[in-house]
Amino acid sequence: MRILIATNMAPFVWGGAEELAVNLQRHLVDAGHDSEVLRIPYQWEPATGIPSQMYLARVLACENADRVVALKFPAYMVQHPHKTLWLLHQYRQAYDLFDAGLSNLPSGEAGQRIRGAVIRADAIAFSELDSIYVNSEVTQRRLLQYNGIESTILLPPVNDPELFVGGRSEGYVFAGGRINGMKRQRLLVQAAARVPSCRLVVAGPADSPEDARELVECVDDLGLRDRVTVDIRFLSRSEYAAYLNDAAAVAYLPLDEDSLGYVAMEAATARKPIIATSDSGGVLGLVEDGVTGWVADPTIESLADALASAVSGPGVCESLGVGAHDKLAALSTSWEEILERLLG
Amino acid sequence: MRIALFSSYVPFVRGGDRQIVDWLATMLERRGHDVERIYLPSLPWENRVLQEMAAFRCVDLSAADRVICFRPPAHVIDHPVKVLWFIHHVREFYDLWGTEFSVFPDDAAHRGLRDRIRAIDTSAMREAHAVFTNSETVTNRLLEFNAMKSEVLYPPLLDPERFRCDGFNDEILCVGRVEPAKRQHLLVEALGHTTSQVRLRLSGVSESPDYADHIRRLISSQGLDDRVHFDNRWIDDEEKVDQMAACLASAYVGYNEDSYGYSPLEASHASKAILTTTDSGGVTELVIDGYNGFVVEPDPGMLAERMDQLFVDTDRTRQMGRAARRRVVDELCIDWDHVIERLLS
Amino acid sequence: MRFVVFSPVVGMSSIGRITGMLTSHLVSRNHEVIVVRSEAEPFLNEPVAHEFGAPVVSWRASTQVWKAIARSDVCLYEIGNHYGLHIGGLDWMVQSPGIVCLHDFVLVDVFRHWMNNHWDSGRRVLERWYGPEIADRFIAEARGRGSMELAAANSPMTEWVASQALAVLTHGAWGLPRVLASCPGPVAVAPLISAARVGSSPDGAHVDAHRRLRIVILGTVNANKLHQDVIAAMGSSALLREGCELQIVGDAPSDVLASLSALASTHQVRMVATGHVSDEEWEHRLAGADVVCCLRRPAFEAASGSLIEALLYAKPVIVTDAAFYGSLPDDVVHKVPDYDVIDSLRQALEDLCSSADRRAALGARARSYAERTFTVKNHADILLELATRTLEVAPVLMLTRQMTRLLHDWGLSTVAEDPRLVGALELLSSEVRHANGRTPLGA
């Protein structure tokens, strides 16, 4: 079968969703299909331009494919008689972020009209789908609440588990993933300042030069250069895996994340315990305090306690790490089953 | 710099102008640029062509400092620094109109659509920071149909140093898909008229079983089984390089192609002369008769004469091979330094 | 070029008559034409009364009409202010947008009848172009079966048809602002084709010294032709009272004629009324006229067929300086302002009636102008040029509609709500400039 994976992209941004698309393609090809990834540029600023981005998706010619598997808004609006949705991202600015006052939609009537357009276009797109899968409980809940759509959770596996072999800890805490305000690396650094025995490695691409600068300044202002390593750039998978495999524990504390989070899943694959906070959202599906890691309050003091525990010695980390690994295994779906669901 | 390479493609149809984008991306990255490749589907049937142009116009790549556009309708994108490396129009609305290859009836309604498309293309081209093409043929068409001046920028090979010259055997080598438009049958017919013991190797796969059969029958009926090597299989890069390195000369006789493709370029880097025909199109921009190869009428007898000459007058053949290399390296500067300097200027 | 032309074909339709001249002419120039007759019953049952030079099918025969459309380049809709004659055109122009030839700028009557079957859409159309207040007044006037004069002034309904067209062709420039504001495609003005048999008209009227000069008003007697003002003007001048007679040629209800008669008596003006006349009699009366009065207030038609006939007959004509009449060159008709009509009319009539030379000269210039201008070839040339322009713009207009429909599905009203979509349509419309530098966006 010819399967087109339809997703959106922002130029020069590459993250977990992009890896997923590529890995899905790889597994489809391994299973004997012909598969391509269609990455449609998507610009959501200014919000008045969003109808044009939906229009773009509607027009693109996908008829050569036998099936489309769509991953994001507005790529799932492409027209095709056989479409499956594996929803990684809705346009949250029209839904939960709108309610939370964190939307990029302009206030007043203009914003309402665009919001209305997104909701109606979504309703039309959802009605065209053969089946609807989501990547997390959070996404499932939102889809039901805001769009009245029932969906099945299909957890995306770690993209390249063979890299995350784990192994002996070098005793530092590793904070991987994209660097920006929502991921709260600065909070972590501030907590590390309270724990003189804690060595911390923060590594990953910054969303913007400002995000990079703020983090570096934070480390400098607190005088932590000697025990906090900051490596801001896009890491290759093997570089990233090396950091993770040698860590004592992995810290991942995004604000209200949609899903388990690849960083957390990769840590669990490598049998490393995870430090998260009580407001990390979907990550808490994997991080259970005392079982698979630590769930701190989103405060410097509470995080400092968790860090102190993580660097206190290998014993506690090993058992929590195994706990994380086992929990992920229980939650996971194999690629074989995923393909069956998506193509069924 | 952040550079976006923007082109269209047909989903699940291989080939077609992707190498130029992929190779350019590789070479730009080697020079330290951030490169993003964007391919969007395009199937420009008459009832879709305008809406595709509208949709492509909505694409926002402002995160890139510069956008380089290849296959239409990528060229309609709105960007302050838009560079076109124009490969071809949607030819049904241009030079194929009203010819035997025309797909549309030449009535008033279709002419209206055609004229609108040309006007839109012209406007979109005028916005460009610079306009390049891959051949004189395309440059001439841009001038004729869109009144646009453009600079010819021949697409180089990726890592041309791979191609070397090991010597000169007795085979004339033709690399490429074996199909009617490429006219390998002409070479086989020509071989039948030769008087020397020159041989022919056809290296490539045929997706047209009828044509492959035709070639085989031509070989047999002329008793050339021991002088023509035709495998009908995919030839990988390494093998191709080895064959090029060993051959006497190369032949490329496809009919009326816009640009010469990579094969004659490969032969040139391997210091091998090129045999081609007067109606081959783009390759005649590369080959100067008697200098770096021969350009003859598409007639088996005349081709045979040249094939014999290549075999017999080995000094001349080597000399033309050296000239072929000189032509692409020194005279036409078909290399990435030149290309990138032009694209980023 | 291949046309499908939607038009009435019955005898009473002058639009049918001149469309027949147009299609015959196009066919003689090797263009292809299929005519779709556009009348409602009972007109639909009447025979084809004009010569079209092309096959005629009924607008109700959908399959045949679609077949004709599939084989053609463009549809041409001949539209006038008569519902019973043009219902088929109005119906099909929605399904197969094309060029509309507007014979009347004011389409109040046809809209009013159409609205009887489309109340909700009708109200939306009124509100869209004129706002809720005028919409209410229109509906009130329509329900009251009034004369619709107010409606014609404030809401002529030109935009309703023009906005559905890919392009508009009309016969006069005076109503163009509304067309330009509502038609997304190209707009052109082509002279009305005159059906008069040019060449059979005698040169001027022979004036025998004892005969009173004949001042003729042609056409169905309507308040807007200002018969009363003409009578009053003649009555206020001794020269006119004694030297002229007023001929009223055309249909009139007997009570109207009676009251005009009475008025003429009061003013001591000699008046002759013919009532309904045959085509031959009409021409005879026109040929025998010394002066023709073609006054209109208000003016409905884009152009006047009877005026053009009078010009072709080399008649000195007095017109109101407004609308189509005002757009004629100053030296081929005698214009009077549409205020102080009686005084200006008296002066104009005295001017012309006092000099046979002046009448002859004006008449000669009138004929020369008319012969050059109101020809079927001129009309066809402009139509063909418009059609070529339309065919280039049509695909973009259709795309705009498609885009707008999609936006409607999303609850948005126009493309203008998204600047990127506007930009896309601007690129697709580039290099297209219509009259007054407009581009085909909006609408």
**What is the average per-residue confidence, as pLDDT of chain B, rounded to a whole number?**
94
Shape of chain C: globular
Number of alpha- plus pi-helical segments of chain C: 18
**Count of discrete structural domains of chain B:** 2
Folded structure, characterized:
The complex is a heterotrimer of chains A (344), B (345) and C (443). With 344 residues, chain A is of the alpha/beta class. Chain A has 2 domains: 2-154, Rossmann fold (3-Layer(aba) Sandwich), CATH 3.40.50; 161-331, Glycogen Phosphorylase B (Rossmann fold). Chain A is built from 12 helices and 12 strands. Chain A has helices spanning 16-30, 50-59, 96-99, 109-127, 137-147, 185-193, 209-221, 237-245, 262-269, 300-310, 314-331, 335-343, and strands spanning 2-9, 34-41, 67-72, 83-89, 131-134, 152-153, 173-175, 200-204, 228-232, 249-251, 274-277, 293-296. In chain A, the strands form 2 sheets. In chain A, strands 2-1-3-4-5-6 form a 6-stranded parallel sheet. In chain A, strands 9-8-7-10-11-12 form a 6-stranded parallel sheet, with helices on both faces. The longest helix of chain A has 19 residues, at 109-127. The mean pLDDT of chain A is 94. Chain B has 2 domains: 2-153, Rossmann fold (3-Layer(aba) Sandwich), CATH 3.40.50; 160-331, Glycogen Phosphorylase B (Rossmann fold, 3-Layer(aba) Sandwich). Helices cover 39% and strands 16% of the residues of chain B. Chain B has helices at residues 18-30, 49-57, 108-126, 136-146, 184-193, 209-221, 237-246, 263-269, 283-286, 300-312, 314-331, 336-343, and strands spanning 2-9, 34-41, 66-69, 82-86, 130-133, 151-152, 171-175, 199-203, 228-230, 249-252, 274-277, 293-296. A 6-stranded parallel sheet of chain B has the order 2-1-3-4-5-6. Chain B has a 6-stranded parallel sheet with strand order 9-8-7-10-11-12, sandwiched between helices. Chain B is globular. In chain B, 49% of the residues are buried. Chain C has 2 domains: 2-189, Rossmann fold; 213-373, Rossmann fold. Helices cover 48% and strands 14% of the residues of chain C. Chain C contains 18 helices and 13 strands. Chain C has helices at residues 14-28, 62-70, 83-95, 108-116, 119-143, 149-154, 158-162, 176-182, 227-235, 238-243, 254-267, 279-287, 305-312, 323-326, 341-353, 356-373, 376-409, 419-428, and strands at residues 2-7, 32-37, 56-58, 74-79, 99-102, 167-170, 187-189, 213-218, 244-249, 271-275, 291-294, 317-320, 334-336. In chain C, β6, α8 and β7 form a beta-alpha-beta unit. Chain C is globular. The chains are: A alpha/beta (344), B alpha/beta (345), C alpha/beta (443). Chains in contact: A-B, A-C, B-C. At the A-B interface, β1, β2 and α2 of A face β2 and α2 of B.
